[in-house]
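Support case: user asked for a sample of complex input and structure output to validate their parser. Sending the pair below.
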Amino acid sequence: MQMLKQTDRHLFLSLTRKMLNHLCWSGIAEAERLYQSFDIEQQSEKEELTDEWNVPNQRRSLVFSADFSNTVFAIAIKHLSDEEILRLIQKWFQEEKLSFLDQVINRNLSLAVVGDVIRRYHHLTLDEPGTPSPSKVGVQVSLIRRFLSDQLPYINVAKDYIEVSDFYHLLQNIIYSAESHGKLGGKSAGLYLAAQILKKKGRKSEILGHVKVPKTWHITSDVLLVFTHYNDFSEVVEQKYKEINQVRLEYPHIVQTFKSALFPADIIKGLSVALDDFGEHPLIVRSSSLLEDRIGAAFSGKYKSLFLANQGSKQKRLDALKDAIAEVYASVFGPDPIEYRRERGLLDFSEEMGIMIQEVVGNRIGKYFLPSYAGVAFSSNEFRWSPRIRREDGLIRLVPGLGTRAVDRLSDDYPVLVAPGQPGLRVNVSPDETVRYSPKKTDVLNLESNSFETIEFADLLKEAGYEFPGIKEVVSIYKDNHIQRPIGMNIDFDNENLVATFEGLISRTPFIKQMHMILKTLEETLGEPVDIEFASDGRDFYLLQCRPQSHSDRSAPAPIPKDLPDAQVIFSANRYISNGHVPEITHIVYVDPLKYNELTDRRSLEEVGQVIGKLNKMLPKRRFILMGPGRWGSRGDIKLGVNVTYSDINNTAVLIEIARKKGNYVPDLSFGTHFFQDLVETQIRYLPLYPDDEGIVFNEEFLTHSPNLLPEMLPDYAYLTEVIKLIDVPKVTNGHILQILMNADLDKAVGLLRQPSLVTERIRSEQRYKTYEGVTENHWRWRQQMAEFIAAQLDGKRFGVEGFYLFGSTKNGSAGPYSDIDILIHFRGTPEKLTSLKHWLEGWSLSLDELNYFRTGFRRRGILDVHIVTDEDIKNKTEYASKIGAITDPAMALPLMNKE
Amino acid sequence: MTGHSFNPFEMAQAQFDKVADLLELDNSTRELLRNPLREYQFLIPVRMDDGQVKVFRGFRVQHNDSRGPSKGGIRFHPHETIDTVRALAMWMTWKCAVVDIPLGGGKGGVICDPHSLSDREQEQICRGWVRQLARNVGPINDVPAPDVMTNAQHMLWMLDEYEHIHGGKYPGFITGKPVGMGGSLGRTEATGYGVIYTLREALKIMGLDPKKTTCAVQGFGNVAQYAIQLYKQLGGTVVCVSSWDQQDQTSYTFKKTSGIDLDELRKITDRFGGIDKGKARGLGYEVLPGEAWIEQEVDILIPAALENQVTGESVKKINKNVKIVAEGANGPTTIEADRVLEERKIYVIPDFLANAGGVTCSYFEQVQSNMNYFWDKDDVLQRLDFKMTSAYKAVHEMHVKRNIYMRDAAYAIAIDRVARACRDRGWV
């Protein structure tokens, strides 16, 4: 203490003050007396003491002499042991230093300075995890805010899991420029926190203790700005305020400019150190945008992630890495993210974006590099295939190889689905289904060609199955309609039929238990459902990403209005509801459960299925719903559900199964299991209805007694009018449409009649933004305008044209960015005229395609889908000709320049 | 008819009545054959994974065992009804009789939904089913097999439980086992080959040289592929096949007038018989709409995909050159189409007979299991050829002698054989 008194008087006095306080709180009378005497001394210098309520207490300046200090420490020696005093002094000593650290961090100095201070602090003192002191928490919060996130919910959780010393270690792997003030970005922050949570909780639970995170280097977010300034690209910042087609046009140029740009020397140095650390291990360069931090903006897949094989000489690998980073940077100025941000009102937010350089988890297998398995997992299950599965049972989408195929919905390939809370209940039951819905392809890195490839899983096994770590956990052997888990290592890769089922992984390893625990722990700690990405090299489990479970716009829980007038509600449901929102249904196909049950011959029952298949092709896609009894697509007993295959229902928006009470028993529904995975991948909604439950609305009157269009649409099947009802909703309800709102949180769903305009407005306000790929006004409006324009330019006499009609998605206002324009031309001329008409239209088609490309980025080699019909076609009402003057969804006639 | 609704058992009875009239069966025989001899209905309590006990309802119907032990599948279905099981058991009696194998007809099931059951729970249901019936089923009484939503795994659980109860090894108790665990070789080829064995005999009778015939096949699954293989070995030319395209959710016909090359197509086909249309075009195949297979100018049509493919509509498109329709699929022809085929004198080898290779091979599995000696594949296929050929001949003979449609002839033969067995035993 003597030394301190002479060298650091400020610190010495501060320690005196703390010791006095400590002694007083410990109830030592001597100390209290000393404190009071000091008090009185101070007061006596004042004129009087006010006791008024509304006057602030006089501040007491605790400035005391060296003698006073000596007295305090003398009392301390008398009452406390030497060890106790030493401990206290050490503790206060550390607090002093922390407050210094806090000041530095909060003074908005550059990361270089902050980093230096943290390093010094780390070397000076061992940061014991022990009891948190307020000053320590203060420093932690400052560091979290500085490096990871300034979002309060994040900080609130993170401060309990991230220690000051963790930043010391994190700092070793951060690349930043001299003046950098940036952060790591949302993706990095999310992963880092999740990993810390699992690490801390893992100390008490073995199963969580085994979770690893791949080696990761970070580039701070503002390096992007440094990069653009360094290369004098400042004009790119204005990119986002340009017209979207301008953005699209200029984007390839930006990518090239960025790729040929130079990186500042300190960044290159950082990357070089990182590469030395990684060695020749394949890498992924991922964006970690600050926007990903914002609630409600899930930027999944909007910015680029690039895989690097990272093989060869250091210079070659460094060049490839720089190239990849430049390309990820360029993606900030790409049309998709800009459009996306514009729609969400995030355009004015800074474009800063962090970068994560991460080791790809996996092994070399043949000439490829890939994890044994990877996927995504959700703590809340929105796709239940059995009533026994609860939302909290979670969902895993699992694939062999890189997880990219589990993240995306592919529609022609399928991940294996497992609910970790109910791993025994599988979506697919028969060997045939299991094989059909197993992953067929796999994403890999080709180390020879340095490229990302999609290859057949079966080919990979034939080529290098013996090198595949943990293969027996991944595949099953399919033989004689029997699926078996391999035993031991004696798999014959050349001759056996192997299917990726993950049966071994699910039933013989702690994987499912571990996954369930991870999801539960993260959800509980973060206070909301999470989704994670993961991978395994066949030995260890790696966490790759963690973020709040996001909903695409159409699968968010729909708010359900209260006190709806009964007349407006067509049906309601309150069991096994998933989340979703189906805004604009124009047609209902209703198979009456009672009438269906009364059909006596098999042929009629089968024909109901055929009618559904035909209607599925005639009605506007995703604008109609199918409602019917029992189990759709049930094999075995046709009576139990309409006999359809997936291709008979693949255009519906919603599949609704109705369970009517029979006597005192309610039949089980299928939950769409016969085509469950097809429904999931194409996002067709499934809804079970129990009309006989208490408190349920089921407007049977509307469904059975509304005018039925079936006999007019399909006259051959008119005898099924009693069984199948086809309702054109706007036609029978004065222009209303049907809207289905589904909310899993409340376990409630309703089908409502609404005014179309009201609906669109509501969607906007409820969802804050419209869907990116769904119905947007622009896509059909300009298409229709162009069609009108073409018709007006068309010289009917010259080309032998009698009529020009518009139908399909453009006419119905449901066109998406990739839609074509369906045109029907009533032709009455010579073959020569037909040829020249076709040429004339082809020119238009290609021009419109180019126009559409600038708007949307979709190119399809011609956008006009022209169908020529003759007088005879119209007379016979052949497929397209029947659209002219059709009963429902007729083609719209557009005026021509003149007629034949 | 009792209710106003479709009842599969009543339908099966009506079909039987029609043939019984034709055969002029007496009333007591009709009474006996219209109904199952024996029915078991019982409960299977199962402790579920969450500790609760759930009670499942099980069935077994033995329709008729006058010709030998009952044979038939076990179905797991959430809406199983006794009437469905009865109808299917009766159907099995006729199916075994038409190929003249010494077995009767049975069917069973459990009301349950495997989509909502774990493997362990399903195993408990299988074992519970056997425990309830251990004394009423077995290699000499009643032989179960896989059916809707059951497979080889269920059969092995059941076999294990049965052997446990009876304290011995009885592989002949159940069929549908994997090869090496009491299963038979040749099962994969059996149905497709069976179709061609009957077709070959039909060509012989009609005096046609297989080498000079052409054929169009619907489907490219297991049955179709093996049928094509054997037909080509006989020297015939397959002009086209149709196959389902999973991605486009529709089917296409792949045509090559000089004849399709099976091996080359197999290389570009997925596990479910889906042919890659891009690659097929590259190999010189013409890609036509799915329905085009039926309108080809060929001698033979083999529908080997789904039911209800030859309909009142599509039958009109059949080319005038077509002489034979060999039904590889189950129920590919509707009643309306049947009438047209009969009028046009197109020779039909009915599904019931043409695709009986499967059930015959199951019988072989049981025979081999009972003697615990397993034949090689050629042995199995040779015996299959023999069985199918004689079955075909008997049906054709009936068709000629009584001048009845082939489908009716097949039924008549089957029912006649069962009726005789009942009479010989002195039951009626």
